Amino acid sequence: MDQNPYRRKPSPISTTTTGGSNPLPTSELLPMKFLSFGTLKLTRTFTTCLILFSVLLAFSMIFHHHPSDPNRVMGFAEARVLDGRDYSNATTTNDSNDSDRLLGGLLATGFDEATCLSRYQSSLYRKPSPYKPSPYLLSKLRSYETLHKRCGPGTEPYKKALTQLDQDHIDNNGECKYVVWVSFSGLGNRILSLASVFLYALLTDRVLLVDRGKDMEDLFCEPFPDMSWLLPLDFPLMSQFDGLNQDSSRCYGHMLKNHVVDNDKTLSHLYLHLVHDYGDHDKMFFCQGDQTFIGKVPWLVVKTDNYFVPSLWLIPGFDEELDKMFPQKETVFHHLGRYLFHPTNQVWGLVTRYYEAYLSQADEKIGIQVRVFDVGAGPFQHVMDQISSCTRKEKLLPEVDTVIERSRRVTTPKKHKAVLVTSLNSGYSENLKSMYWEYPTLTGEVIGVHQPSQEGYQQTEKKMHNGKALAEMYLLSMTDSLVTSAWSTFGYVAQGLGGLKPWILYKPENRTAPDPACGRAMSMEPCFHAPPFYDCKAKTGVDTGKLVPHVRHCEDMSWGLKLGFLMDLYRSRRRLSIPKAIDTQTEEQLGVQEKRFRLFGVMRITEILAYFMVIVPVLLVIMVIFFGHDSYDQGNGFAKASRIIQIKPNVTSEDDSTLQRDQNPKDVSLLGGLLVPGFNKDMCLSRYQSHLYRKASPYKPSSYLISKLRAYEELHKRCGPGTKPYTNAERLLKPKQTGDPEPEGCKYVVWMEFSGLGNRIISIASAFLYAMLTDRVLLVEGGEQFSDLFCEPFLDTTWLLPKDFTLTNQFTGFAQHSPRCHGEMLKRKLINGSSVLSLSHLYLHLAHDYNDQDKMFFCEEDQSLLKNVPWLIMRTNNFFAPSLFLIPSFEEELGLMFPEKGTVFHHLGRYLFHPSNHVWGLVTRYYNAYLAKADERIGLQIRVFDEKSGVSPQVTKQILSCVQNEELLPKLSKPGEQQHKQPSEEEFKLKAVLVTSLTTGYYEILKTMYWENPTVTRDVIGIHQPSHEGHQQTEKLMHNRKAWAEMYLLSLTDKLVISAWSTFGYVAQGLGGLRAWILYKQENQTSLMNPPCGRAMSPDPCFHAPPYYDCKAKKGIDTGSVVPHVRHCEDISWGLKLVDNS
């Protein structure tokens, strides 16, 4: 692409300039030729030698450097799941020098740091900017600060200048001149326009005063030392601000239009209307001649919503000064924005708390700013498609494997990317989050998606809305790669503050995703949306985007202007003044220069290439020397929040400090002997990997339980589906196949699929325990969906009931009044010692609605009858293990199996229920993306049974009261209590709270609360919720996958809060071996439970519908008071649960 639009390339076959001018003299051409060949040859030789030397040195260092050298310097330590390396402390303090702290000299020293923490802390959250402010800019800023201090509000010059406002015209300008910025439009526009006005003030030696509007002083710190930039509230013209427009009498454009401008007189003040709707006369502000008149006026009042900096470069009186201030022309807002805009402590708290809780531990941070201008409720599918297309094609985010869940052995997870989405709508982040949770990435990268707020619509009038908006702009600026939306000033601010060249999502037309979806910005500068197209000298229209190389049309708005970086090889043209650039130059003038510059351009390219080729090998040597082979992936220079908050990385998996390192690794993976080796690990990754994600259990399985499990496995292998004993036993179920079963035949208990997933899991565990006690083979109904959720627990056989099982068609008809129902037969007195011998099967109704006759199942006498029946078909949704402990013939056996009585489900659940690879992928992806690097994980399972709609205020209060009173989560600081210490003065804990609920309401409340307010302990709190299905959808496979994954994730937490009556919570606490805090069920929604929660006696579930019957005395009895290890439940007074004897 031609980098200078004011020349044509000369003909390559002629030395004569275009238009018939004289040919290039041979005396001038020959030296250039020889210079070209000699210089290029010398450059090639020199470059080759350096490259060879550097490469040889690099290879020497690589092959002689010992990777285990203990003295080598390590990179940033990262907490990585399943990484066996030992990391000491990830904290890095930024104490190199004041250069980074002062942003290369942009900032002045001497401020009270406590009053504006962001001023000197912002550098700790970003990589050092590659763009250094020029010495001339720094001198201009120091000079301005002196001017502002001398002329600012309250000074004598300011007071004298105020008196001029009482006059229409003045005789002299006075000591100081001012430009007043009027607060106007949305926050992004205000920031950009204020930066523009400040630059204008620098150029014209004026003092900038800022109309505070509704919230400016709540959002930004004072940028200038020892003097406020805020316009005093008693400013005489303040009351006129709201009414200022194009028709105001002192509007410069209006005066020009009506020919009332008198160049011989100096006005006391002038209004400049530079809003997007300004007219041609208003745009004369950008002409040199008009600047001469305007420059005499002591008070300028400016209302604008534009970033008009690009057009300042086109004013001849300013371009040289701007060149000296900004040699890198695309850095204007980057430098001025970081100089001016320091969030107040309240806003900075929003920034740092969110960064530390959700972004700080990621290897790479991706920002996606979504602004949709279409009318209607989102999210829009075409916008989602556009985001996905852009981030994948530009390699910002990896593609996902939507075809198949690939079985892989666990390796160290690759890069962890945190995606920060900002949008008024939560739909886009939810879609991204779900996609990267439900499917693995093709690259193996871990993707976490976060969105701070979703306000629904722009609410510029609200302080907290604007505070969050500023915080989100700032957070986006801290990312490593950024995607922004076309036309959005929100994104412009973020990219400028961060020094980022974003990928811009082009504006869709007709609700269709554009192709390409996005494009890389030429620079980090904002776009001037409403520039003038006028040649002030020629007094005619002109394309101002083609006058100089560094002012170009915007990528996202074809008529807009922006400052863009162009690699200028023609240095003699770099400083062309505006008039020279505009003036027509003859091709005769350009032809000779072109040939000279082409030669030096080639030489310049060769020189740059040589430097590049030399530097790369040298950097390789440095990396080897200082980092070694094993540390190339230890960090990428990204600034970590741990640099300032000293969060210790959570050492997970094999490096978990809580793992028993003196155990044999084989024993650890086999859960103390519960599991057996020999399974195909790739077919069920969770079986031998689960121990990597949680602490070692304090509860050890007894040797007797282990021997019983091994004996059961042999029984199941001998009698399971497909074996001869199974075939013989099933034959008894078919018509005309009656009589005594074979002496060595096998007996079975068939669990019928029933109720929700939590109930199914705890009832299967109960049925399995009963099977072990009665030497029966457990077979479970469930089909393909069941196998999609759970792996096979028994080696070389299956526990799934065959689809062609003889009685399958009768299952739906089995009920309490079925002829073969045990309770019904007792009721009709059809069962006794002799009659049972002729029965091939019995139906056991042990669901929550069972009657007194059904409950006789728990009597010794009935058990002696049932043991003779080959097939028992069981329907239950209960964890009935506690009542098995009250059957005399089982009591001793159970005591040997479970010396710690409250661990029945803990051991059996971990033995039986291994998530399938589909579900295990959901577990591990979520854990690695959101929980792995926390110092502590808190589980919060919320299930409200009597909630009609929305979020219950009483339940919310109950949750907060519980977690704070029990010190699971810290309380919030009251206003004024927060101490403004340097963050590195003490260590912080990063606590990740995993919320599971059918609604997002409670999650949003907690997330917002811990984002908006600091904690008294200064701990960092991140709130996460995997899904929010709205209502229970047991019939849906993905719903059940996610439910099972969430139960398992809750079981991986360190502390757990569950809801009363919920089997979902029971499963989580049992698998995790956790004594949860139980949120008591509220009897009504008008009063708060006191206490709001209580600690569970044991990890075991509650039996919700136990029998109250003394089988021996044949009378009612409180079965919760018979033996010390069977007690009433904490959450259901009539329920029973197993507890330890102590």
Automatic annotation (TrEMBL):
Tagged with keyword Glycosyltransferase: yes
The entry's keywords: Cell wall biogenesis/degradation, Glycoprotein, Glycosyltransferase, Golgi apparatus, Membrane, Transferase, Transmembrane, Transmembrane helix
Intracellular or extracellular location(s): Golgi apparatus
InterPro entries in the cross-refs: XG_FTase (IPR004938)
Origin superkingdom: Eukaryota
Transmembrane segments: 42-63, 608-628
Segments for region (Disordered): 1-24
Keyword Transmembrane: yes
Biased composition (Basic residues): 1-10
Main location: Golgi
Pfam entry (one): XG_FTase
Family of this protein: Belongs to the glycosyltransferase 37 family.
Protein name, as recorded: Fucosyltransferase
Gene: A06p051750.1_BraROA
